[in-house]
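hey can u check if this looks right to u? its 273 residues, i copy pasted from the old doc so theres a chance i mangled smth
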Amino acid sequence: MKKITFVLSFLVLASLVLTACAPKATGTTGGGSAAAGLPDLGGKTITVAVENQYPPFNSIDPTTNVGVGWDYDAVREICKRINCVAEFKQAAWDGIFPAMASGEYDMLADGVTSRWGRNWAVDFSIPYTTVAQQLVVRADDNHTLDEFIADANLKVGTQIGTTNFIAAEKFFPDKEILSYSEFPAAVLALLAGDIDGVVLDDTAAYGFMQANPGQLKSAGVVATGDLLAFVFPPGSDLVGPVNAALRAMHADGTLLQLNNTWNLAAPSGTELE
């Protein structure tokens, strides 16, 4: 708890400094205007990378072939408040951090954990939710977490290059964690019986359970306390305006409403004040 409190305090202090350096609110440009007291980006178009493979944050609705999820709703609400236009672009997770570091995209919205090490290459917004890591198994599997640890025959997989992979390696130190390029592939392998468990954020785990009703369940928590945030190229002037919008959304209840709609944990207040 003390460690998390320190991280939150550090993030809040940093975000306050960034907000102080952000563009000030101006008059109407680009056919719209920012909300009162918020920075105005003058109708600027920003490219937002999404994986479209990570419900409920982002995915493609099979009935409309349109991107949906918390990321889409939240970023559009942010742009509504600071007068920008979000142009979503699908991007593979593998290589996304180098792409962000080089400025290929203006922003990444993909349920990304803000953690020490990543912030050497990119910048983060203040957190918008916290998640725990779950081990997701088939609905008819009754193995306990202790049995997963002890039984070498029980296979665990997750997406490569994620904090989920790190959590899986720590929780199952004697297992070779099988890696997949995207979470849907790992879940399909689980449903096919190729592996026996997938380590997922609890929010994403719920999303995949909804997408596969009656076929999946959680075997328990393997890690807690991950803070999720938006990602920007280093030195991006979008960080301050986005943080200001997030705080306003938290203050008026919009963020809580979005999180409830998409089954994200509500921010405690400490993360955004």
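The chain has two domains: 2-130+228-261, 131-225.
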